[in-house]
Amino acid sequence: MEISKEDFDKLRELEESLWRPETRFDNEYMNRVLAADFFEFGRSGHVYKREETLGARQQPINIALPFNEFNIRLIDTDVALVTYLSEVQYDEKELGNRSSVWLKEDGEWKLKFHQGTPTIR
User: Fold this and answer.
1) Separation CA 28–CA 18 (nearest Å)
2) The CATH number of the domain where 57 resides is what?
3) CA-to-CA distance for 94 and 20, rounded, in angstroms?
4) pLDDT at 115 over 90
5) Which of 36, 81, 85, 118 has its CA 20 to 30 A from that of 68?
6) Is 56 helix (H, G, I), strand (E, B) or coil?
């Protein structure tokens, strides 16, 4: 099974939008993107539910875009696993292996699950 260029580009755009302050902290936008039962295993080890994600306070996000090692694998026709290496600058540069599970519902991609895992490179 191979992902179409259109879906690949859309998922890259959606994944990057989660790191851009103008979309990440726009609750109307995030409400459309997150699946009703979305949850996340954060890089910190904290488990975030949809409500916490929607209620996050606005802050700068110093992410390096485009992502390194960005890849998409179709699990099923309308289920995609997105993986990449994130590079975020806080007091120090933090690297993380990232994975997201996206589901296509009624022609729209929805984020079902996300996980961040610290990495050293």
Assistant:
1) 13
2) 3.10.450.50
3) 17
4) yes
5) 36
6) coil
Average pLDDT over residues 98-117: 97
Instruction: Give 24's strand partners.
Output: none
Q: What does the pLDDT look like over 68-106, one tens digit per residue?
A: 999 999 999 999 999 999 998 888 888 999 999 999 999
Domain total of the chain: 1
Q: Is the peptide bond before 60 cis (omega within 30 degrees of 0)?
A: no
DSSP string, 84-118: EEEEEESSSEEEEEEEEEEEEETTEEEEEEEEEEE
Q: Are 88 and 103 in contact (CB under 8 A)?
A: no
Core vs surface per residue 90-108: b (16+ CB within 10 A) or e: eeeeebbbbebbbbbeeee
**Which of 48, 55, 41, 30 is closest to 110 using CA atoms?**
30
Token pair 């975020």 in the structure block, residue: 88
